[in-house]
Amino acid sequence: MRLPPIAPADLSPEQKPLYDDMRRGISGSFSAFRTEAPDGALIGPWNAWLHEPAIGRAIWDLTLAMTAQASLPDPVRQIVILAVGARFNAAYELYAHIAVAEKEGMAPERLATITADLKPVDFTPEESIAFDLAYALVRGGTLPEPVYALALKTFGQHGLNEMIYLVGLYAMVSTTLNGFNIPVPERD
């Protein structure tokens, strides 16, 4: 880990409101996995965002907007997020979203295949399209027209937009996690 965790008592006046807001939001939306150290310091990408509170605030606000405005079924969202995490090999992201997907009932075999950066054979048509979109985007370049057209037909423009933004957000989260070498917490 390249950035030390910031205990609540050590937060600057610029960090404190962001910490409070993230802690409230995390407890409501990200409760399936560990997000906090025993001393109350946030772990995962949140700690990194606290180190640069102006940038962290913008990323946190985007994260909240993507969560509050979610229209895609959650299994589709988790497939997109896990496909991005697998491509970046972002350990904390995979840890966190495996926990979310498990809580929602995703089969261990499916999780193993997605996190191995492979496509499961048992996807629904919607899940297959979501995986293909995420898989193609994280490899760089323009999203292939057949994938774009199929996603548009299946999810509508809003749903397609949401998937593209979700790939971008979690690519940034993965880059944050990998850049600062943020570890997976010990299992309880």
Would you give an account of this structure?
The model has no long low-confidence stretch (mean pLDDT 96). The protein is globular, with a radius of gyration of 17 Å. Helix 2 crosses helix 3 and helix 4 runs antiparallel to helix 5 (91-103). It contains 8 helices and no strands. It has 2 domains: 8-68, no CATH class; 74-179, AhpD-like, CATH 1.20.1290. The longest helix has 35 residues, at 145-179. 65% of the residues lie in helices and 0% in strands.
What are its keywords?
mainly alpha
In short:
The chain has 188 residues and is mainly α. Helix content is 65%, strand content 0%.
Count of DSSP strands:
0
The total domain count is 2
What is the number of helical segments per DSSP (H or I, 4+ residues)?
A: 8
- Secondary structure class reads mainly alpha
**Overall residue-averaged pLDDT value:** 96
Q: What's the CATH superfamily of the largest domain, by name?
A: AhpD-like
Largest sheet: none
What is the first-to-last residue Cα distance? 20 Å
Weakly predicted, low-confidence segments? none
Q: Quaternary arrangement of the chains shown?
A: single chain
Using the coordinates above, name the CATH class of the largest domain: Mainly Alpha
Percent helix, as a range, is 55-70%
Instruction: Give the overall shape.
Output: globular
* CATH topology description of the largest domain: AhpD-like
What's the order of the H and E elements? HHHHHHHH
Q: If you compute it from the alpha carbons, what radius of gyration comes out, rounded to the nearest whole angstrom?
A: 17 Å
Strand fraction = under 5%
